[in-house]
Amino acid sequence: MTRVRVRGIYSTALTRLLLDAGLDVVDASPPIRERFDAAFPGGPADVDVRMTPDRQGVAVSGPPGDADDVLDVAADAGLDAFAWPDRAARGAVFNAVVERTTGGGAVVALGDDREGYLPFDAADEYVEDGDRLRVQVHDPNPPWGGGRPEVGTTLRALGGVASLDRGVDALVADTPSGGGDHELARTTELLAPDVPEDWGVRWHRAAEDAGMDALGDALEAAVALADRLEAAVADAPSPGERAPHRVAAPERTVWTWFGRDSRFALDDARREVTATMPGHHRVKAGSEAASGAVDFAEALGASPDGFPFGAVTDQFGPVEGDRVAIEHGKPDGRRITLGRGDVTDRDRERGRVTVRREMSPGGTYDALGVERERGDVAVTRFTEGNWWYPTVYESADGRVKGTYLNVCTPVEVFADAVRYVDLHVDVVKHADGAVEVVDEDELRECVDDGLVDEALAERALSVAERVQDAVSDD
């Protein structure tokens, strides 16, 4: 059964249509797995379906028979869906002629009025007008934009999980992290296929989540392709003998352009899977900003009750891995930044982020009476709309040094900062389990000075009392 990998704004709709056609979708993105509530298999794809840079359609690339199966689905999206096969398909090898050089590369003739663009840094040696050389299409381009496919002189056996680069001394040419000592580099030596001499493995992002069987299959497919390319090149005339000339075309690339009718038909397919506004694909095809606005609007529609924390943070942040400041306001108008930390977790449903900070040594933690030491960390859990938040202080060896529960105005979690106004009264839990309310007198002084309304102060004291009871029961 044909295995297909899909990426871009049409992924959900095309995944639905491909599955309905009996094709296997592999290496699905996290949003697709979530929307379909399914565990899609990993491993190499036979056919790659990728959105065009201008968002107007998709490129379908793969072996001719498999690509045709997928093309039948994509090109049948609507009455105004068009399909154009590209002679300069992904991975195709040509004897080319340099027509002219530009600032950063050369325009090369591939034959049949098809041109390619060779960046100078993708060429093995100096290039000038009239040169004849062998190139391969590394990055195809749709015909309607007038762009040329990008080519290079390095021969590659291209794959979605693993590729092979010819002329590389090391077994592993590259890994997703960029390091030759990456775990994937060590794994390569354990896999069964024998990588051809003078070829290096280049692992892609999809490899990081793939199991050993999937990695082995991907490498085996890349090795088989490399062998076919070697054979085709060995039998072909040299560039000096015949150019321009197509040497090999291991894949077929067909460009599918979606018109308005097709985009609305794709909306219908997507609507079978998840909430989809009218004109979803029509708007998304406009720009990155428009695409983000559609995602936000649909997420809002799926969150009719309460503040849509998940939708807002999905679109604007923060999400896991982001860095935020803790902006600690004071009733007298001052604002103190307590520091910046890394978001280590985000709970979309509860409206909560967890922030980890590394603490500098020196002094003590307020009200806890415990020294700040080198290696200490503070783990804070902020919940949107809460009148308090907890911070747990831990030593370098993970020992809890105490917990500070800050009472404040309702917390707001923004993309770059968490904001609130501190109401002074707080609850602390010591390492020995003792719990106490502190700084009530400072809150009372703010009321006397007219900085905090009496009703707000009563609310703060009530929150502190409830937090104390809850923590004491832990």
Q: Taking Cα atoms only, what radius of gyration do you get, to the nearest Å?
A: 29 Å
What is the overall number of helices?
11
Total number of domains: 3
Strand residues, percent: 25-35%
Q: Which parts are unreliable, with pLDDT below 50 for 5 consecutive residues or more?
A: none
Separation, N- and C-terminal Cα atoms = 55 Å
CATH superfamily of the largest domain: Nucleic acid-binding proteins
**What overall form do the CA principal axes indicate?**
elongated
* Average pLDDT level: 89
What name is given to the CATH topology of the largest domain?
OB fold (Dihydrolipoamide Acetyltransferase, E2P)
CATH architectural type of the largest domain = Beta Barrel
What is this structure, in a nutshell?
With 474 residues, the protein is of the alpha+beta class.
Secondary structure elements and pairings:
Layout: E1 3-7, H1 11-20, E2 24-25, H2 30-36, E3 47-51, E4 57-62, H3 64-74, E5 81-86, E6 93-101, E7 105-111, E8 114-119, E9 132-139, E10 150-152, E11 156-157, E12 162-166, E13 172-174, H4 183-188, E14 199-203, H5 212-235, E15 245-248, E16 252-258, H6 260-271, H7 280-284, H8 288-301, H9 309-316, E17 323-329, E18 335-347, E19 352-358, E20 364-365, E21 370-371, E22 377-383, E23 388-394, E24 400-408, E25 412-413, E26 417-430, E27 435-438, H10 440-448, H11 454-472
Parallel strand pairs: 1-2, 1-3, 13-14, 17-26
Antiparallel strand pairs: 3-4, 4-16, 5-16, 6-7, 6-9, 6-15, 7-8, 9-10, 11-12, 12-14, 17-18, 18-19, 19-22, 20-21, 22-23, 23-24, 24-26, 25-26, 26-27
